[in-house]
Structures
1.
Amino acid sequence: MTTPNDAYVGIDVGKTWLDVALWGNNAVWRVSNDDEGVAEIMARVAALGLQLIAVEATGGYEQLVVQTMLLNSLPVAVVNPTRVRALSKATGKLAKTDVIDARLIAEYAFKIQPEALAPKEAQEIRLNALVTRREQLVEMRTAEQNRLGTAHNSMQVDIREHIEWMNARIQELEVEINGLVDSLPEWRKQAERLDSIPGVGKITAVTVLAEMPELGQLNRQKIAALAGLAPFNRDSGQKRGKRRIFGGRKGIRRVLYMACLSATKCNPVIRSLYLRLTKKGKLFKVAITACMRKMLTIMNAMTRDQVNWRPPEPIPN
């Protein structure tokens, strides 16, 4: 039985409801996924000596409860539902309901103990929301631009108007992001540091910082894996498959891709790597992915060491 001094809480998230379970306790309660329901959760867990609150990642429906807990400095981790189900299968728990899922998430929190998110101030949460919304609009704009080439003539004007609206809205968001970053001294300092890398702009720097708070805290292998830029082996017996990247944070990869397109022309380190790989006959996709991984490694080292970009020393003749 969990005691008030070592409480692990699991929250199964739905669009309308939140199911909450306490590890070692059969009780599960349900609240609405809104301000009132989250306030009820806060009131009920306030008396516990919380070790960790694990919240299922659901593509956005968990944001309200997670952000509220971060603002109140509670230890909260957002967990991958696939990993929770893997634990349930490993322990022979194959049934699935919201109540069972809440208990499984609490068990996952207790047994795996994923790392809690760092506490965030309200402005930082707002900044993350702005960056996320900008990424969503950029993705939608790309989809509309792709549709434009195959759309019927009668629809092309409508698509162009939508693209123009998204262009304007993205610019507005970028102005708001820049203003908010300037009001947060630590964010401004970190963004300026990454912005010093040739090929990296301020929005790229802020996006990387917002979507990868682990930057500077992990080694280069782990940081590349988080971004989905680490090639994984696909070998079996005598077969040697191609190394491929998968998973990770696509928002990070998108901004690094755009930055590296520029960096291959103006950044001596990235340009040298790109030319070396293409001369070896590597495909563009392979070469640019290696450049993205290299740039992220540079960002990670600069953040860890708290230093700005320094151009490489010239090789003596």
2.
Amino acid sequence: MRVLVTVVVAALGVSAMAQPAQPPAPAAATAQAAAPMRIYIRGGLKTHGPGQHDYPQYLADWSKVLTERGAVVDGSLHFPTPAEIATTDVIVMYKGDAGAMTADEKATLEAYLKRGGGLVSFHDTLCGPDPDYYSGIVGGAKKHGQVNYTLEAEVPYTIADKGNPIMQGMSDFTITDEAFFLMTWAKAPGIKVLATATMAPTPSAKGHEGEVVPQIWTYERSFDGGPAYRAFVWMQGHNYANFADARVQPMLLRGIAWAAKQPVDALMTVKPPRGGRGRGGV
């Protein structure tokens, strides 16, 4: 009997050793890293002449730009509903006077920020009727209706923080666009300035020519006790062509990724379409 038991045990041991090792379950961090970035583009109706403030065109063009880089993109020309941004990592806003919100819209935005959702703001998105309130959302705000712009003029950037990953590889350069100078700034916390510009001597900027004003910045704060959220702001975008400028677009892609709390280079590479290998893919 002892011999039989020994043989059986030995056989079971050999059998167990012969089984291939099971691969470890993927780590949660790996699964999270593999998840696509979820972006909501908040656009609006076009407000200016040809080639300027083209919010609908941005929604169309950048939905493609971001999708090609692996993001899952949604968007609209209206303020998002809570359901539309329930799983969003970052809201990219290019819409005139976005600081003007109803009480319900404010509540939706504040709930989104309280869970740590990110924001990106371009050009006059940071305008509205209550700059004291809105500066606490994106770090700086402009009063709607105030003469506060250089209009068609050179915007000469001085990179203030070359060590910031959003500005990697960038040096001072100039574009033709529009800059604002009379800003209400958040104080606690304050913004982190990435680039400034000297105000051009245009008629609308009379008395402010030569002033040096932040034009690109980041802002981080905790809203109502929630996890800290991130905001990235590029004040330009008056001339729509500047979104495709080879010096500007990579910075914007890095800023969007940063605000989404993803690696800053996450959107820098065009990726193969998901779910297929060409037209006949599965």
3.
Amino acid sequence: MSAGIGSQVNRAAVPSVAVQPTASSPKPQRIRALDFTKGALVLLMVLYHWINYFIGPQWGYYTYLRFLTPSFIFITGFMVSHVYLSKYGATDPRLSKRLFTRGLKLLAVFLALNLARSLAVPLLGTDAPMENLFSPRNIFAVFVSGNLPVVGGKLVSFSILVSISYLLMLSGVLMLPYRLYRYTFHFASVLLLLSVLTLGFVGGRSYNLEFVTIGMLGVLIGFIPIAAINDFVRHPYGLGFAYVCYTIGITLWNVRFALLVLGVPLSLMVIYLAAASSNEASIIAREVILLGRYSLFGYISQIAILQILSAGFRRVNLGFTALAFSLFAAFVLTIVSVEVLQRARTRVASVDRLYKAVFA
């Protein structure tokens, strides 16, 4: 999930949804199906977060949305190899610096957002009293184990930014040996997988480590030409059968890491297939694609919107009508926030510069 990482590519794109670059194109064109996929994830994440705020994690079908968080990180990894590497080239010294710097910026954004949250939550009255983020126990929970309360809990929000920042910084570092050894990221993926397995063997678990591992698998998938990916997702029956098997697996054994490693790319391919089959001229498709272009901003804005909505709806009787309206409002306001940002960027130069400084 990374709005600053545009879905641009200089390889073959999805015929039905992408604009093919020409010899006179000043820069690679965006893959619209990929933007659609990211935008669909943003909308699904609205539902995911709404459930946490208005129903709670005890909801019986919550398990089937657990692929969402690692999916954003997987797509970030995909962009590293498929977009950044195509744009800069492995030998360009700017690439390593760009990735590492962007990771640091996301960590700074995470800290700034949670500082703002610590000031706003007492006014909104949506959470229990805030804990000290910088106590040793909480530092370990946030930045090492990633074992946090659900969204809306009293420790932190926007925790996905931590894993994304780690993935980007790690990728920036690995770009240095990648210039000499083309299987650097493959080797790193094996080491990360072994680390997850070893930690599990001794009874430990780090969600941050697991998410970075899934993100690194996304980097590996990003080395595959987009034409080959398109050919693969054009087999909907096989894809559907695999997804049904994954669904049965998480129903029987819950969402274990091994199942997520399979389920995240499967879920993304199902959404990507729907994107490639959609009519990009429709209003809905255009809005979803725009959300995909601003996926990181959309992720951040929806949490702020849901915090405010949950504070307001706590004062009314949450019957079915109120619940339905709160979900509808969350979807609409998230889309509106992205539309406002898009128009502000095109009309106000300072807004555009600020957006690029924070998200690009």
4.
Amino acid sequence: MAARPPDPALAAPGAATPERILQRLDWKVIRRLDGVLQGDYRSLFYGYGLDFADLREYQPEDDIRYIDWNVTARMDAPYVRQYVEDREITAWFLLDLSPSMDFGTVAAARGQKRAMLVDFVGTLARLLTQRGNRVGAIFYGSQAVPRKTIPARGGRLQVLRLMNELLRQQPLQRAPLTDLTPLLQGALNALKKRSLVFILSDFISAPGWERALALLNRRHEALAVRLWDPSERELPDLGPLLLEDAETSEQLYVDTHDRKFRQRFAQAAAQREAELQHAFKRAGVDLFSFATNEDLVRALVRLAMERRQRRHA
């Protein structure tokens, strides 16, 4: 019996149209999420816009980001601003499309970090716009390719536009090293209204970006989504290999049969992980890590649970 041809809606993002990607996400991800979360997406999206309502004296459980320092100085006691919720969310995606995001070892193209970024953004944008919210995006740029901004709008057409622009972005030329600071600083300057901001990256970057991230988080509700591949933490035993740096094109010949080399690699990866965790803690931003071999529905459910726990901690 002849094999059934694959559904074009389930094709890989690089080979599919925005419409087919959205169809695949609707069927394979969003419907499953509806069943698991039962329509309660506030765990994912509690970054509602806030309108100023009143001032009152600070209490120990209050969020220090809402302290009004001018009033505090005049009253000689800490005061916080009180807000009322605006049910409409404006969400922004800050998207790292640097060379290292094209790396992946899981299931060919579907395991690339960039492919997972496309699915993640498409799913969240679809969920947000279905509930009457607006989404926009800022793409990472280099000196050769200027940073691109898609203004925040609502509706299904906006999601399709976002997906289309993502698919059109060609891999950036390799440079000495990605620097995420201009992306974060650009968002800090561009976003005027308090928004829910997702930063999607592998955070393989020149140092110093955490200061811009901390400033961004003071004005908005920021959530860092780190995409990573399992082989970036632990090398498999595959014998002699020629490794190439995705950012700089530098090459190194290694023997992965060498157990001590694999251990040193794992130790270096663990140290980098600890440094990243410390950087996000200093910036006061929640970090959500998402592996290329992880099911997207399970990842989003895990995200919802983590955010619910942190909110009620």
